[in-house]
Each structure stands twice: as C-alpha cells, then as structure tokens.
From TrEMBL:
Coiled coil: none annotated. It holds the Pfam family FIST. Transmembrane segments: none annotated. This is FIST C domain protein. The lineage of its organism: Bacteria, Pseudomonadati, Thermodesulfobacteriota, Desulfobulbia, Desulfobulbales. Residues 229-378 form the FIST C-domain domain. It comes from Desulfurivibrio alkaliphilus (strain DSM 19089 / UNIQEM U267 / AHT2). InterPro entries: FIST_C, FIST_domain_N. Residues 31-228 form the FIST domain.
Amino acid sequence: MKIATSHSCQPDTLSAVQESCRQLRHRLAQDPDILFVHWSVLYPGEELRKLLADQFPDCRIHGASSCLGGMTEEGVFSQDGRGMVLMGLADPQGAYGVAGGKLGANTRESAADIVLEAINNAGRPGEMPDLVRISSAPGYEDDIITGIETVLGPETPIIGGSAADNQVRGEWELITHRQHLRQGLVITVFYPSTTLSFAFHNGYSPTQAKGRITKGAGRVIEQIDHQPAALVYNDWTGGIISSALENQGSVLADTTLYPLGRVVGEIGGVPYFTLAHPDRVTAGQGLSLFADIKEGDEIILMRGTVETLISRAGRVAQAALQANRLTPEEISGAMVIYCAGCMLTVKDRIDEVSQSLNSALGGKPFLGAFTFGEQGCFPSGENRHANLMISAIVFGPTR
C-alpha cells in the first residue's frame, strides 16, 4: 500500500482541485485506487465532484465537507474559511467499495442498502469488510449505525464523521465518484492488504455532577431528576448558559468544554464515556443535543480544557498504534476525525493539534476532517455516535 496527501486553499474550485491533484499525483507516483476528500463548503460540492472525477475517472471517491477546511501531516489548511485536503490510497492487492444515497423515511433501511451496495462495489459480495467508514448529514447517525449492523452485525468497526459546514447552517455536502448529496450518506468498506488499527476517545474528564434523564426523547433532554434540564445544567456549570435561558438561544459555543457524558463500559475498572454536546435551550427550558438520548440514562457533566483538547489528538493516534503494537515506522498513513466543536474551541492553536498528530505518527501521511458528529468503535467493540470525540485509523504492515 502507498498513501499520499495533498491540499489547497486556492480561491476557486478549479484551481484548488488542479493544485491538490497535481500534488497528489507527484507524491503517489500513480493514480489512487480510492480518494478521500474533505473541503470547506465555500467550494461547491457538485463542481468539486465533477472536477475530481475528471482528474481520476477510474477512482472511487469518498467525500464530505469539513468545517473551515482540513488538516494533513503538513498542517491545517484553512484561509478565510476555505480549504481542501485529499488522501489517495494505492493498494492493488486490497479492495475498497464506495456507495452513497439519500436518507429516506427509514434511515436504517437506507443505511443497510447502501452498505450492501458498497460491498458489491468492492467486488466482495458476501465477505465481511475489515472496517466501515461513514460520512453522513448530521442528525441520522444512530440509526445509520443500527442499519449497518443489521447487515454486518456488531463486530465490524464503524468509524466516521458527520459532514460539516462553516456556520451550522445546514450547508454540508457529501460526494462519491457518481453522486452529490446533502441529506445523505456515503459509505466506504475496507478490504485492505494491510492490517488496520483504530482508536476512539475524547479529551474530557467526569465531574461530580450527575443525574438521570426523567423526561426526554431523540436529541432533546426535557428534564433531569424531574427538573428542567437547562436549569440543572446551568447550575452544574456555574451559570454558563444563563443568558440563553430566557430567549432559548444557541449555547453551542458556550458548552464545548462541558458536554454530557454517559458510561459505555469499563477497562480495568476505569469507565469510558460517550459524549453529547448541548446545542440550544428549548422553549420548555430543555436542552437539545447533537446526539440521541433515552429516558432513564444517567448523565454526568464532563469537563475539558483547551490543553487536553490539543494533546488528546496525538494520544488517540498513539492508542491506535498501540492497539496492534505498531511503531510509526511500520505504518503507511492514517485517517483522523477531530470534532469541529473542539477545533473551534482551540482554533488559535489548531496547528498544535496537527503537530501533535504528526509527532505521534512519525510524520507519515494523515488526513484530518473537522466534523459535526463522530462515529467510532470503543475498546470493548461498541459502535457509537457521539460528540466532541477524536478517532484515528492507521494502516499497518502488509498481511
């Protein structure tokens, strides 16, 4: 396997595609078998798709828009909200399949159909993939994971990130080599010639504040311990959303360092958590989130800092290496998902995140996106959707 990345911040889509594809061809020294691309929405998705398909007509493409730009081993690429990053994989002994589609009335059925189409596109019907990578419009992620698991079972790791725009206006986009989508899903199935390792973590610690959801459904908590959820949360955090309690405003930027956690499992007696990011105070003083909840769930207030959000990226990459006892010298490259909310919180120091990853991965090529939701596989094998998370996939030695 050979992996290379490229990038551009050129002001127009044609120039950006030409520059990044020229870089990629030079570094890869051949056309890729599959291309992954993340871009800010200032580059129109359908134009981008057509230009990339013209550049690489025989290549599968998996693409999702990313908040403000993206990152590679060479740094973070975003100028005035504009940036594009590409990763090409040349792996003639492996197989990869890509499929996409709109999400209809039954998201689970749509996801099941799309993953089967991706498997057929890889030329491996009836064969379980080593890993499934997903990109989707925000809001559907939990049902997408359930739908994929109805086909593959819970053992196949599912890792990905939700498409993002620059200002949470619903302008996110997705592409394959054949399609441009908005409220859709793109799936790639991996049958690589190399081993794969991965990790899925967050940069937060639990506090002493906790309670139980006594009323709520979907992505809204109405009550915690029979009290209005927004009031309870505001009390837990020392009043950080006080200004939004009367006008039901957005609290997304205020709550990034204080998400709500739920225990997924334990390793060595130490619990690990899935996170939900509070988004808005509702009319009934509830809290809307970027992840699904259920009545009866126990929730714990989590606490993060800018320092932990920066350092955690490299530690997640190290965990992915350690999962298969790999050294950076043994890998071909990596794919990283870094939450857009975390990125915006550490924005003035985002280059340090790229440097942290670069150090952990020994300078090997990596592709990074800034997403509006993260999907990954926890240490005990649970595929989950969460917020404010970081994931890494590393491509190890040839099998």
